[in-house]
Amino acid sequence: MKNKKNIGSEQSTGTSILKNAYSLKTPNDNKLYYKEIANNYDQDFAEDLGYIYPSEISKMLIKRLKEINGPICDIGCGTGLVGSFLKNTEKSLVIDGVDLSTEMLAIAQGKNVYRKLYNVDLTAKKYKIPNNYAALISSGTFTHGHLGPDPIGKLIDHCSSGAVCFFGINKEHYKSMSFDTYIKKLNDKNIITDISIDQISIYTKVDTSHGSNKANICSFKIC
Q1: pLDDT digit string (tens) for 30-73?
Q2: Domain-by-domain residue ranges, the chain?
Q3: Of 5, 49, 173, 213, which is the most exposed, with the fewest CB atoms less than 10 Å away?
Q4: Helices 27-37 and 102-109, axial angle in degrees (round to 10)
Q5: What is the DSSP letter of 29?
Q6: CATH tag for 48-222 (out of 3.90.1150.10, 3.40.50.150, 3.30.1330.10, 3.40.50.300)
Q7: What is the DSSP string of 116-167?
């Protein structure tokens, strides 16, 4: 039987994965780290911590399906947890995914829920993905050791007018990395409208060191 504790540590495997992810600094750090853990990510992280973030943010998108008339892009799709939930709920959805890790994308590819997957560094000045998305969704990407708010502006450029966006942002990260002021600036410039901030739990295993972590789900429409 697989031991879910690290040798010499009281941390669960999932907690250790999360702690290490929060310490990442650069895109290359992320590439190397997720290359190591991709094959066992769903079991050692998602299952171990009761990772409900992907399903909870997906439910919010599904409630607004009538507003979405076109393809959806899953930002930082990883192993395809969001895409799987969406597609299993509504099989007619057309979903693309973007992620920095080729190894994580390979796992997502095997789930057969995405139309197309793109290996993209969202911190780069330019990248090639379609520019007609009717919705964007992201869970777990805008957090410690990963992305700040700047990529949101470039991602908006890949959407149609009226597109609906759902960006999950770690609650602690939301103000410390100035997501609040960045979102306000987009609204003030009439780039986005109808902003709503909802808070959700990220994990069900509340007895872990990160079990009480929350995410702010920032949803809005593109003008």
Answers
A1: 777 777 777 888 887 888 888 899 999 999 999 999 999 999 99
A2: 48-222
A3: 5
A4: 50
A5: H
A6: 3.40.50.150
A7: EEEE--TTSS-----S-EEEEEEEEEESTTS--SHHHHHHHTTEEEEEEEEE
